[in-house]
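Late entry, evening session. Most of the bench is empty. Finally got around to the prediction I had been postponing all week. Sequence below, unchanged from the version circulated by S.P.
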Amino acid sequence: MPKSYFQFKQFIIYQDKCAMKVCTDACILGAYAEVAEVNKILDIGTGTGLLSLMLAQRSKATIDAVEIDNDAHTQAKVNITESPFADSIRLYHQSIQDFSQQRSGSEDKGYDLIISNPPFYQNSLQSPDHQTNKALHAATLTFDELLDAVMSLLSPDGQFIVLLPPFEAQQLATVAQKKGLYLCAKLLIRHNPQKSVFRHILSFSKMPVSAYTEDILVIHEKNTSGYSDKFRLLLSDYYTIF
């Protein structure tokens, strides 16, 4: 049974009310996203607020976090309010479709970074648990809708970063290119060197690129449960065990 909370170095994530618990791949996404020149961030489907808090810890950006689920929104509100970064994050209880529509036509130049760990099962057998369905299955947010929101809200030179399983990552990349979002970087994640890639982190921009860069992150060393040096370095600002 997952713990009711997850202790990071500078904040706590309570997760007893959320279908989606803190997981390693989401933590990798939060630590991987580049925030050095970023002033405005949008977190689509914030869940517990994990990504927003990770980005707030190492940036001075203002962050808008959007969450449609009632319980997840309540949980995120507690996690954000009780953190040292509450002043940096604004939480919205609505769908990203409504959020995007309300901001269409705005003179705002858009977000420098949009980040998402979205529901990714597009057409698959659903869980009997409704909350889990909403978190994992794209019944309330298709890739088309997600990318339309990103196109509307991303600044001309901004970046969209998303975490998905390999098959769904390819699906989204295909749809993204048709909409004018270009893949510029891909991070492949493996549990260990013997395992297949189980997650992709894709970075997109509105600016066409001749070729995207590709890197691999292995979480555990070969034939051991010990963490790789690359993983330790990436998560050293967050995990209390490092």
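Two things to note before I forget:
The mean pLDDT is 91.
Strands lie at 5-7, 12-14, 40-44, 62-66, 89-92, 111-116, 154-164, 182-190, 197-205, 213-218.
Will write this up properly tomorrow.
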